[in-house]
Amino acid sequence: MKIRLKTRDKIAEEKKEKKRVARERRELINSFPRSKREKANAMLDELESFHKNMNRWGIYSFFFIALFFVSFGTGYVRLHPIFWVLAGIGIGGFAYTIGKTLIYSHRADRQKKKFRAFWLESQSKKVEE
After folding, report:
1. Same domain, 82 and 21
2. What is d(CA 79, CA 92) in angstroms, rounded to the nearest whole number?
3. Are the beta carbons of 103 and 17 closer than 8 angstroms?
4. Are 65 and 93 part of one and the same domain?
5. What are the DSSP E strand ranges found in 1-129?
6. Quick one: 65 and 103 in the same domain?
7. 19, 70, 71, 128 — which has fewest CB within 10 A?
8. Does residue 85 sit in the same domain as residue 49?
9. Do residues 97 and 118 both lie within one domain?
10. If you ran DSSP here, which 8-state letter would residue 36 be given?
């Protein structure tokens, strides 16, 4: 099995993508009036942290459900009680991590709605000025 290393083109493409995202974020922040830019930046940072946590807990949930299926699906659960513990940890961990994922998803949706309302409010005030 070959391990594929990132080529120079791929690295350059990723750098361009990061710069594009940073530029779009700067343009979005600059679309706010000066007095509200700091709050807008803080709201975007909070939204990003919610998405990052949502993705992290989602990945953990896959590991826990895999643990459950490996311990339960192999049939070893009938042989030894330690596999009962592993299966229990797997299903319990999955329930916990899916719950955390859903909580962060809900928080991100609420933050997105707040940010959208904040942006519309600032744009209407900008037009009035």
Report:
1. no
2. 21
3. no
4. yes
5. none
6. yes
7. 128
8. yes
9. yes
10. G
Residue written as token pair 């339960």: 72
Cα–Cα distance, 53 to 50 (Å, whole number):
5
Say how many C-beta atoms besides its own lie within 10 A of residue 87's C-beta: 19
> Same structural domain for residues 58 and 118?
yes
Strand residues in 25-128 grouped as ranges (E): none
pLDDT at 3: 63
Single-letter amino acid code for the residue at 65: I
Query: For the chain, what is the domain count?
Result: 2
Closest CA to 60 of 13, 100, 29, 117: 100
Residues spanned by the domain of 65: 35-125
Q: How many CB atoms lie within 10 A of CB 56?
A: 14
Q: How far apart are CA 111 and CA 117, in angstroms?
A: 10
Per-residue pLDDT of the chain (129 residues; tens, 9 = 90+): 456 667 888 888 899 999 999 999 999 999 888 888 999 999 999 999 999 999 999 999 999 999 888 887 777 777 778 888 888 899 999 999 999 999 999 999 999 999 999 989 888 876 665
Contacts for 44 with CB less than 8 Å, ≥ 6 apart: 25, 28, 29, 115
Take residue 52 and report the two structure tokens written for it: 């990052």
